[in-house]
Amino acid sequence: MNRSAIVGVILLTFTLFFPVCLFSQSAKVYVFDLHDEIGPPSWRQTKKAFDHAKELDASTIIIRMNTFGGLVDYADSIRSTILNSSMKTIVFIDNNAASAGALISIACDKIYMKPGASIGAASVVDTKGTVLPEKYQSYMRGLMRATAEAKGRNPRIAEAFVDPDVEIKGVNSKGKVLTLTSKEAIKVGFCAGEVTSVDQIFAAEGLDPQQRVDHQVSVIDHIIVFLISPVVSGFLILLIIGGIYFEMQTPGIGFALLVSVVAAALFFAPLYLEGLAAHWEIGLFLVGLVLLMLEVFVIPGFGVAGILGIICIVGGLALSMVMNDFFDFNVTGSEQLTTAVLIVLFSMVASIVICVILGKSIMKTPVFRRLVLEDEQRSDLGYVSGKQPDDILRKEGFAKTDMRPSGKIEIEGLWYDAIALDGYLEKGTRIYVEKQENYNVFVRKLL
C-alpha cells in the first residue's frame, strides 16, 4: 500500500469516528417520570426537568409515563414545553397514557409503549367522570389535531381520541372514543415500537447508557406537592381565618395572629412556586384583609368595605388555587373555579364555627393563658383589660375612645376593652354593660 493510500485510510477513519466520539461525550440523555395525575406538581417537575436537561446540554429527553389523565390546562403547558424544545423528545408509556397523558405523548418526537399499554380516551370530563359540554371537547379536539400535525401523525386518529363521532376505517367504530393498544398504535404509526424498559429505548435509539441522567425529585418538591393538595389547602385556610377571628375577638393575643400569618405563608408560597398564585391574587387577599380591618376598627357599622373585604379574601384565596391569566381561565373552566371557591367558603365557615364552639374552652386552658399578653398596658394608668375583667355587668360608664364598634370604656376609674352592640359610638358617650363573655365586654348606649 503506497503512502497516499495510507494517508487516505487514516483521514477516512478520523472523519468517521471522531464526530462519533465527540458526540458521545456531550450527548446527555435526560430521563424523568410523569406518573399519577397531570396537574401543578407534574407541570413544575416538567419545567425543572427540561431546564436541567438544557443546562446539561442534553440531546435527548425521555419521559416515562403512566397516568390516567388530569387537568387539561397543565397538560397543554407541558405539551407546549415539549413542542418548543430543541431536544429530541421520547415518551415511554409504561401502562397508561389516557386523556391528558395522550396529549402529552403525541407531542413527543417518538412514542414507545410497554406491551399491553394503551393510549387515548381523551374526552374532557369533570371530577365525577361526566363528559363536559361541547366547547370543552372542541378545544381538546383542536389541541390533539394540532399536536399530531406538528409531529407528522394522523390528526384524525388524534381527534378520534376525543370525539366518538370520528370514525376511521379499520381502526375504530363510530360512537366510541378511541383507545389504542401498543400493537394497534404501532399499526397506525403512532408508536415506534414495544419495549419493556427505558434501557431498551437506549438500545433502539442508539443512545449511550453512560450518558444517562435521571431526574431527582427533591424533598422540597415533595413538601410542595403535600401543601397544595385540596385537603391541606382547606386546613390552612381554616387556620388563616381562625387566627384572624381569635385576634379580633380577644385583644392582646399575638399567637393567633402568628398562626394566621404562618398558615397564609404555607398556603401561598407553594402555590406561587407552582405558578398558580400570582402577585395580584396575593395582593387581592391582602386588600381584603385591610378592608375588613377598616370596617371593624375604623368605619362605623358593617357595610360596603366589609362586604368588599370578604369578597376580596375569598377571591384571592380561590383564584390562587386555579390557573388563570388575570381572570382568563382558558380551559380551566368554571368547574375548577367553583370547586376552589367552595373549598374556601367551606373552610371559612368551618373555621368560624369551630372558633365559636371551642373558643370558650380553649381560652381557659393553661397553655393558651401562657400565650396571652396580660400586661400589655400599665396598671397604674387604670388599664386592666389584659386580664379577666371584674364583674361589671349592668354598671355604667362612658366611652373613653370612639367605638367602631370596639374601643375602650371607663367604669369607676378603670379602663376596659369593649365592643359596642349599637355600632359606632363617639368618645364620651354614656354606656352601660349589657353582657360579659370571657375576655369580652359588650356595652350599649345609655339612653
Topology:
Layout: H1 3-26, E1 29-35, H2 40-55, E2 60-67, H3 72-83, E3 88-98, H4 100-106, E4 110-113, E5 118-120, H5 134-150, H6 155-160, E6 179-181, H7 182-187, E7 193-194, H8 198-205, E8 212-214, H9 219-227, H10 230-249, H11 255-273, H12 279-297, H13 304-319, H14 333-363, H15 366-370, E9 396-399, E10 406-411, E11 414-420, E12 430-437, E13 440-445
Parallel strand pairs: 1-2, 1-8, 2-3, 3-4, 3-5, 4-7, 11-13
Antiparallel strand pairs: 5-6, 9-10, 9-12, 10-11, 12-13
Helix pairs in contact: 2-3, 3-4, 3-5, 10-11, 10-14, 12-13, 13-14
Describe what you observe in this structure:
This protein starts with a helix and ends with a strand. It is elongated and about 95 Å long. Helix content is 48%, strand content 16%. Strands 1, 2, 3, 4, 5, 6, 7 and 8 form an eight-stranded mixed beta sheet that branches. Helix 3 (72-83) packs parallel to helix 5 and helix 10 (230-249) runs antiparallel to helix 11 (255-273). By secondary structure, it is α/β, with parallel strands linked by helices. It has three domains: 3-217, 2-enoyl-CoA Hydratase, Chain A, domain 1 (Alpha-Beta Complex); 225-370, no CATH class; 379-445, Nucleic acid-binding proteins (OB fold (Dihydrolipoamide Acetyltransferase, E2P), Beta Barrel). The chain contains 15 helices and 13 strands. Residues 14-25 and 371-376 have low confidence and may be disordered.
